Amino acid sequence: MSKCALRLSLTGMIVLATAIGAGPELARAGSTDPVLGVGAAVATAAGASAVLEVSGVWAFDDILQVVFPLNVVVSQGSTFARFPVGAAAESGTLAELTDGLAISEITLLEGSGAVDPDASLVRIEHHSMVLALPPIFTDGSLRVVLYVDLPFEDTFISNEVTASLSGITGGAP
Question: Model's pTM, two decimal places?
């Protein structure tokens, strides 16, 4: 066996021994803090409800490949609609939302809504999504925020943007 072949064989055995010795630690993937950001939100009235187009950044590849609990929250005062990607949208009221959503309020938010068949995540792409808002919102300002609550890790929340809604007919009182 030549010196070069012997050196390659030894190197291969060292790499293999290291991988075996490391066990599952070598195979376990690490995570990083997700990047969440809302760039803009544009609301368009559609009778008693509305369509909301949101642009920004979120972990799109993770959403498609793994269970990644991205949530979109649209609120107006204490009224909200929550859109968990991959699950049914909910709506409800939560007094704590009047000044925006804080990480400490997410558990309350998730326990305050009920499934709303009039709300849905219509489309999600790399940097845009379209939401069908339920007829619980009135003309005025809407707050839009994203959050991810990763089990055994942490909760991450995006910046908040506002969208102006006008032209609603026959919506919530």
Answer: 0.78
Q: Choose among 46, 95, 57: nearest CA to 75.
A: 95
Question: Under a CB-based contact definition with an 8 Å cutoff, are residues 53 and 72 in contact?
Answer: no
> Exposed, middle or buried, 148 (CB in 10 Å: 0-12/13-18/19+)?
buried
Give tens-digit pLDDT for 10-49: 444 444 444 444 444 433 344 556 788 899 999 999 888 9
Q: Which of 117, 115, 97 is nearest to 105 (CA)?
A: 97
> Tell me: the pLDDT tens digits for 70-127?
899 999 999 999 999 889 999 999 999 999 999 999 999 999 999 999 999 999 988 9
C-beta of residue 90 within 8 angstroms of C-beta of residue 115: yes
Strands 128-133, 120-124: pairing is: antiparallel
d(CA 121, CA 95): 24
Give the list of residues 6+ apart from residue 68 with CB closer than 8 angstroms, or none: 34, 59, 62, 85, 148
Instruction: Return the structure tokens found at 46.
Output: 């559609």
